[in-house]
Amino acid sequence: MKCLASTHAAALAACLLLALPAAQAADDAAAQKLARDGGCGTCHTVDHTDKGPGGLKPIGPAWRDVADRYRGQAGAADELTRIVRAGSNPYASHWKGKVSGIAMPPNAVVLDEAQTRELVGWILALKPQK
Ligand code: HEC
Q1: Closest to 87 in 3D by CA, of 72, 67, 101, 107
Q2: Which domain of life is it from (predicted)?
Q3: In this structure, is the dihedral angle defined by the CA atoms of residues 10, 13, 18 and 19, taken in order, positive or negative?
């Protein structure tokens, strides 16, 4: 699509409208690949109604619940990127009593900082579950 070459404002606007859903789908595919590469699905699902591997209850919080919890909080993306890379502190659990896992192990070995930031950004942008 030659959106940027367009000088006509209406054509440009139409271009952007068409491009948006495609960009979202590309984001979803990229995030799902990162989550697969990172092995996050061993412990996380997107929706809390999804089942984990082997039909068991997921070990960590559903990512849509993570988005709901931190929505609108300044610094959440930085803080969660740090926690995902370093692992969570079992003595200061953010999801105590809400999930079966005690702590998240460090994920810095599987995803680099930019990849983690991209995935966390996608998680935080998830819309509330219907
Ligand atoms: C071995 C299980 C496991 C794996 C693998 C795992 N997590 Fe977690 N994750 C957890 C648990 C347990 C928690 C809840 C921690 C807490 O209570 O503070 C959690 C919490 C989180 C949170 C919320 C943190 C907070 O402080 O609220 C995010 C975001 C997250 N995980 C993302 C990821 C991503 C991205 C990956 C893959 C790169 C991943 N997790 C891999 C178990 C896991």
Answers
A1: 107
A2: Bacteria
A3: positive
The alpha carbon of residue 99 and the mean position of all alpha carbons in its chain are separated, in whole angstroms, by 18
Domains and CATH numbers, the chain: 30-124 (1.10.760.10)
- Which residue has its alpha carbon closest to ligand 1 atom 27? 94
Supply 119's token pair: 């995935």
Return the SS3 of 62.
coil
Average pLDDT, the chain: 87
Q: What is the DSSP letter of 50?
A: S
Check pLDDT > 50 for residue 6: no
Cα angle 93, 97, 98; round to 5: 95
Å from CA of 74 to ligand 1 middle: 20
Ordered DSSP codes for 22-60 = HHHHHHHHHHHHHHHHHTGGGT--SSTTS--GGGPPPSS
Q: What's the pLDDT at 19?
A: 62
102 Cα to the center of ligand 1, angstroms = 10
